[in-house]
Amino acid sequence: MARPRKTEYANRAVVKIENAFWKLLETEKYTDITVLRIAQDSGVNRNSFYYHYKDMDDLAYQAFKNNARNDASRMMISSILTVLTLQDDEKKSDIDMSILPNSRRIMLCARSESTYLKQLVNDFLKEIWLDSFSIDESHLTTEEKLQLDFIFAGIVTTLGSQEVEDDPLLMLKLVSSEIGKSMLLTMKKISVAQNNRFLETKQNLQG
Fold first, then answer.
1. Which residues of the chain have pLDDT under 70?
2. What is the C-alpha separation between 53 and 206, in angstroms, rounded?
3. Which of 2, 46, 168, 203 has CA 20 to 30 A from 110's CA?
4. How many Å is the maximal CA-CA distance in the chain?
């Protein structure tokens, strides 16, 4: 039998390290998780850790990004944002609510005491929303950026709450409530305003 390639060993090390990170985050504060503890729990030596990551923040960033590529993670956020873009008379029953429990790792970061992990979730939410509406963040006004920061910070806080931990479906119920409708209105206005600015700029260039 052929010996595993060096890249295969590297990939296995990454999987072990990141799995150890997520497991520890279930029970430990982010600030209490050390490289030594990760090495011990993953069975990977510290040299291997530093081969793949600069430090704990780099591990958290890469682990989050790898998890964010997971379809269930993106589907969870997409479902939340889909609710925010539905009209009152549209059917909300079409949303696949079964995917919410599959994105526990995002909720772990949202409920963490670490502002760094919370910001990763915030940026992920914003990234998906901006992509969904083909919005260029650099073209948003200062007020619009602040409004979005306010909205997504609230979603992150809710995702990290004990109530949503106990019943993830409460997240979708919340965004369907009066406050959710207010968020919907604001986000729609931002989307429409950017689209109008784009069309105005295009017309000016053509004229």
1. 1-10, 70-102, 207
2. 49
3. 46
4. 69
